[in-house]
Structure formats: structure tokens, C-alpha cells
Write a structure and sequence with these properties.
By secondary structure, this protein is mainly alpha-helical. Helix content is 58%, strand content 0%. The protein has helices spanning 14-17, 21-32, 37-44, 48-55, 63-73, 77-82. The protein starts with 13 loop residues before the first helix and ends with a helix. The model has no long low-confidence stretch (mean pLDDT 88).
Length: 85
Amino acid sequence: MNNVKNKLPGRPRRSESELDLRAIGKRIRKLRGATTQMDFAHVLHISQAQLSKYELGQSALPLGVLVRLAQKSARTIEWILTGKD
């Protein structure tokens, strides 16, 4: 007999909670404005190469960088992640 277990509540599956990294990257680029990647990366205490990966949606932001970005830009973490205030 093939018994199928009921799905247990708890942590959402990755596919249910994934953020759009490209959209986040576009918002980071918007926050950077006319500042060079090198200068903006310096303010965030990351490398220019890493900032480029964030802006292109190739890498997810670690919590520390996300907090610094929100503090430096006066935007909310929610806006950076979702585009909603």
C-alpha cells in the first residue's frame, strides 16, 4: 500500500519564497544613481565585483549588506527586496 503523508506546515519551500534577484539588482542600481560601482561598493564595505553581481541579479544580498544598503539609502529593506513600501 502506498501511503502519502500530508504536507506538514512549517518553513516554506524555496520555490514558494524566492525573491526576484534581478528586480532587487535593478533597485540597487537605482539607489546607486550616478555614483560609480567602485565608490558605492566602498560605502557598503564590499568589492566592486560583488556589487556588480548584486546589480545583475547573480547573487543574493547577505543580511549585513542589505542592512547597510537600507541605512545608506534611507529606503526600507522591504522596498529593496520587494519594491513595496
